[in-house]
Amino acid sequence: MFKVKLRPVKARSVTDESGVSSLALAGNESEFNTDILKGDPIGRRDIGLNVPLPAQPEAFKKVVTEKVEQFKKNGVAMTIDVWKDQQSGLTYIMDGQHRFIAAAVLGMPVNLNWKKLGIRPSQVDWGGTKYIEGVPAKDKIKQKN
Hints:
Elements: E1 13-15, E2 21-23, E3 31-33, E4 58-60, H1 61-74, E5 78-84, E6 91-95, H2 97-106, E7 109-114, E8 130-132, H3 137-144
Parallel strand pairs: 4-8, 5-7
Antiparallel strand pairs: 1-2, 3-7, 5-6
């Protein structure tokens, strides 16, 4: 059997395109408190790189609204899957981008489920994200059944 030696994860500084340096997520936090974002992160360039970054350049406003209402109804903290790119030091959302946005709208913490492997997305920050109209894939699947 192989023994895997885990190196301790240490936070490191990341620098955004404007040259502002901030402390990146270490890769072992159990939650992220979105209240520091002070609202919806979509399209904002003032957030920096020390937050879980989007994996997709767009989001559905309808889905975010559903997630906000879902949280208000049951009060259960949302969980997202994240992955830390060891080369860049950046953390990306692998699954749960709409839940993260909803939590930010509410100023609530999200639970972080760290994945060991991931793929670096083309999206680099929240400033390049936008809301789009259309039907989410999950709704298209429901319509076919």
